[in-house]
Amino acid sequence: MPSQPVVTFHGAAETVTGSCHMIESGGHRILIDCGMFQGSKTEKELNYRAFPFDPHAVDALILTHAHIDHSGLVPKLVKDGFKGPIFASAPTIDLCKVMLPDSAHIQEMEVEQLNRRNKRRGRQSVTPIYTLLDALEAVKQMQSTELGVWREAAPGFRFRLWNAGHLLGSTSVEVEAASNDRSVRILFSGDLGPDNKLLQPAPEAPAGWDHVVMESTYGNTDRQEVTEARRRAELRAEVRAAINPDGVLLIPSFAVERTQELLADLVHLFETGQLPPCPVIIDSPLANRASQIFRSYARGLDNGDLLLRAFASPHVRFTESVEQSMALDQMHGFHIVISASGMCEAGRIRHRLRNWLWRPEATVLLVGYQATGTLGRLLADGAPEIRMKGEQIDVRARIRKLDLYSGHADGPELAAWLRKRMPVTGTVFMVHGEEKAIEGLRARLSDSLSHEHLIDPHLDASYRLGHAAAIEIVDTARKPRIDPMQVGRTDWHNDFQSLLLDIQAEVGKAADEKTRARIIRRLRGALAAE
């Protein structure tokens, strides 16, 4: 006879990345997502460490969608011994076929560069989290799963998928886990799309649950009314303000869906005469391959015809080779470059930023969530200087933010989504959000659920799930993988880089050699005192 199921939050707990939730019941285990950690170096180092569970002992994995913070460690899971099926919607599998190999390529390339630097510094070499071959092997274990159809994931577990409205193929996961008397019903929201999203319909799922695990990314944000007309009007205003005969508009963008949405709206503004046409370059091989997948599903998407016209526009071009990308540095006249990654942490946008951030004629438009500790977050917070690959760069470009393209529901939309899923007899676990967002969502939900039914779990926390309560399982012998105070926050790496910039600024402002020497002596004295 199975006991009560247990859920453990191995990622996206008090942070927005690394989504990975395990459910155990009757000696069987399934995972919901297996994503990569992004943000501070302390969090990203978790990607290189062993999983806090045995991959051989996992029976099945269910993916909510293809974004790397939800799927990015699947190849590592397979590399480390997971042999079970990976269930996902057909579009999610198609996107994973391009996104996971791209992730492996980036890791192999960055590790190669790092090892060259480590060799010069006398440090040990490192290996990538996984390779291209690992990514290709992982895709082989994926099984296409129709929405709304019950499937067995493992003995004692059955599930079905519901549209989440966040991304092509994105889903919420309904799970029934065997328990002592009747099954425990759990809904994992995945990432939920906002109202009036350009390409995706509104989220769906049944009502009446024992427990709900829901995202809280923008739980403290109210975007007001986001309409298609308002979104396009604000994009038009940003482009017009950025136009400079010697300048560029750089848009760091997630390669999958965000890029396609921006492209469709830009072409619409060109077609309707609301913007003067200009070159729009998609500088991301991943975005190029993802666009091919969107093209194949376009007829079933909202505004699919507009998307197809955008792909065929004479003003749009895609770069593929490194040489084509590097040639953008020689472009003259105002142009728009959309490039990954959306948080400025990897990919070709890093080169574009190094080339343009110090120029006042450039504009950088941030159109997505910027996790704490990322370069995108530093720019969004108004950093006057940044460091990239050991080089200090003064930020003279205009830094702008446009949140209307977010793929995530805001606070009121999240609360409305949960109200439609009521009643919830047990617990709502608020995940995939930083501290302020979680507290904002808690306040919005407090009129529907009591305080003890609203839980924001810590990383690797476990809860036993009854039909009316979730009881935390406290294991004092288990040490946390990282200091809980470092989750979803900047770390010493960020503080150190900021300190270096401050020191350079102070020394640079010194009037003469004597003043500079005094500053350095004081710094040395402070270090000696420690």
Describe the protein's architecture and organization.
- There is one protein chain.
- By secondary structure, the chain is α/β, with parallel strands linked by helices.
- It is built from 16 helices and 23 strands.
- It has helices spanning 41-44, 68-71, 74-79, 90-120, 132-140, 228-242, 258-271, 285-297, 304-312, 322-326, 349-356, 375-380, 411-421, 435-445, 492-509, 513-529; strands spanning 6-9, 21-25, 28-32, 60-62, 86-88, 142-144, 151-154, 157-163, 171-177, 184-188, 211-215, 248-252, 280-282, 316-318, 335-339, 362-366, 385-388, 391-394, 398-401, 428-431, 454-455, 462-465, 470-473.
- It has an 8-stranded mixed beta sheet.
- The longest helix is centred in the first third of the chain and has 31 residues, at 90-120.
- The mean pLDDT is 91.
Question: What's the short story on this structure?
Answer:
The chain is of the alpha/beta class and 530 residues long.
Q: What is the global morphology?
A: globular
Radius of gyration: 24 Å
Helix count from the secondary structure assignment: 16
The side-by-side strand order for the widest beta sheet comes to 6-5-4-3-2-1-22-23
Strand composition percent: 15-25%
Helix content: 25-40%
Helix and strand topology:
Elements: E1 6-9, E2 21-25, E3 28-32, H1 41-44, E4 60-62, H2 68-71, H3 74-79, E5 86-88, H4 90-120, H5 132-140, E6 142-144, E7 151-154, E8 157-163, E9 171-177, E10 184-188, E11 211-215, H6 228-242, E12 248-252, H7 258-271, E13 280-282, H8 285-297, H9 304-312, E14 316-318, H10 322-326, E15 335-339, H11 349-356, E16 362-366, H12 375-380, E17 385-388, E18 391-394, E19 398-401, H13 411-421, E20 428-431, H14 435-445, E21 454-455, E22 462-465, E23 470-473, H15 492-509, H16 513-529
Parallel strand pairs: 3-4, 4-5, 5-6, 10-11, 11-20, 12-15, 12-16, 13-14, 13-15, 16-19, 20-21
Antiparallel strand pairs: 1-2, 1-22, 2-3, 7-8, 8-9, 9-10, 17-18, 22-23
